[in-house]
Design brief:
5-stranded parallel β-sheet, single chain, alpha/beta, Rossmann fold, 369 residues
């Protein structure tokens, strides 16, 4: 579209209660732009809200019934007209009048009697500013969309990488099936149930809950460092073998920490993944491993994962045991309230047991009961 064609499609609304003034402004503007006229503030508001919407308004200040300031206030209050630039055209020429008009939201101030060259120059300037603002807004929207697309792409890459690493650990222990999906669901269920609990509310914000769920699949990544004859042993481990088995918690957190060091910057989900890997076998009463932490000294992320992991282990087949009915698993979890598990987390588990059962059913392995 040429500049002439664009100007011809540009609409300017002129507002004045004096017909002679409307005639003068029309003659000044019509050779270049499309002009609409209103002889009152109320009529101006009707035209401004209709189609075609004005690209610029030249507004008289001194009008009966509704003056220019009142009209401008109404224009600014309506989202459909708030962005239309307004130039006051008035016989008042005191500095305080001009300041009042600009403070009210006008973009410029022209005094009567109007000088055609000045009017055309001011109109052209503000139309160009309006077009530039619109272009900048479009560019910002495109940029925001591109940033959102790339963030989502990065998130997908992270999630794929997490699951690839977790599946690598799973290849060492192939009977875990849908363990990753189930434990993610259990962790989210517990976190959502506890987010309004005063003990957890500061930590369990929506963003943190998402990070917890994303990080959960890495809880047992350290198992890749456990020898097969221990990891896959069908019977009870000897004390020496159990000592080696327990090292998977520290092996996992160490591996994640080295990954953090390699990228030389903090990644939130890795920090949480490291907590979960290291501490999810700690127990509320201090009898867990690897550091024998107790109570609130155990990170919240690990306390949530502890219950999710144990429930899943109880209800699924392992090389060393058959699966257990979920009702029996629930009873065991409840008995461990205040011993293995944080009491409030067990209470949340009981409240949400139907959701746990639904997750277990949705992602069931063939041999789950």
């Amino acid at each position: 579209m040429t500049a002439i064609q664009e100007a011809a499609q540009t609409t300017i609304l002129i507002v004045d209660d004096t017909p002679e003034n409307l005639t003068v402004l029309s003659e000044v503007l019509q050779p270049t732009w499309r002009v609409r006229a209103a002889n009152s503030g109320r009529r101006a508001l009707q035209i401004a809200a209709g189609e075609p919407k004005p690209d610029l308004i030249l507004l008289d200040v001194m009008m009966p019934e509704m003056d220019g300031y009142a009209v401008l206030d109404r224009l600014k209050d309506d989202p459909q007209t708030a962005e239309i630039p307004v130039i006051f055209v008035t016989a008042m020429d005191a500095t305080e009048d001009e300041e009042h008009g600009l403070d009210a939201g006008a973009v410029d101030y022209i005094t009567k009697p109007v000088r055609p060259a000045i009017v055309r120059a001011r109109v052209r300037t503000h139309l160009e500013l309006k077009r530039a603002k619109a272009l900048l807004l479009d560019e910002n929207h495109l940029l925001e969309a591109e940033v959102a697309r790339r963030m989502r792409q990065n998130q997908i890459i992270q999630e794929v990488s997490i699951h690839a690493l977790a599946r690598l650990a799973e290849t060492r222990d192939p009977e875990t099936g849908n363990h990753l999906r189930r434990t993610q669901g259990y962790v989210r269920t517990l976190a959502e149930a506890l987010k309004d609990n005063p003990r957890f509310s500061d930590y369990l914000q929506p963003h943190t809950i998402d990070l917890l769920v994303r990080s959960a699949p890495l809880h047992d990544i350290g198992k890749v460092g456990i020898p097969d004859h221990i990891l896959l042993k069908p019977g009870k481990l000897t004390p020496e073998e159990w000592d080696i088995m327990q090292t998977h918690a520290r092996l996992g957190s160490d591996a994640i920490e080295r990954a953090e060091q390699d990228i030389e910057e903090t990644v939130e989900f890795l920090a949480i993944a490291k907590e979960i890997a290291h501490y999810h076998h700690e127990k509320w009463n201090g009898s867990g491993y690897p550091d024998r932490l107790a109570g609130d000294a155990i990170p919240i992320s690990a306390r949530l994962m502890a219950l999710a992991d144990v429930f899943d282990a109880l209800t699924c087949r392992r090389v060393y045991k058959p699966p257990m009915p979920i009702a029996e698993a629930r009873a065991i979890i409840e008995r461990e309230r205040g011993q293995h598990f944080d009491p409030d987390i067990v209470d949340a588990f009981v409240r949400c047991f139907d959701t746990f059962a639904a997750i277990a059913q949705r992602y069931a392995d063939d041999d789950m009961l």
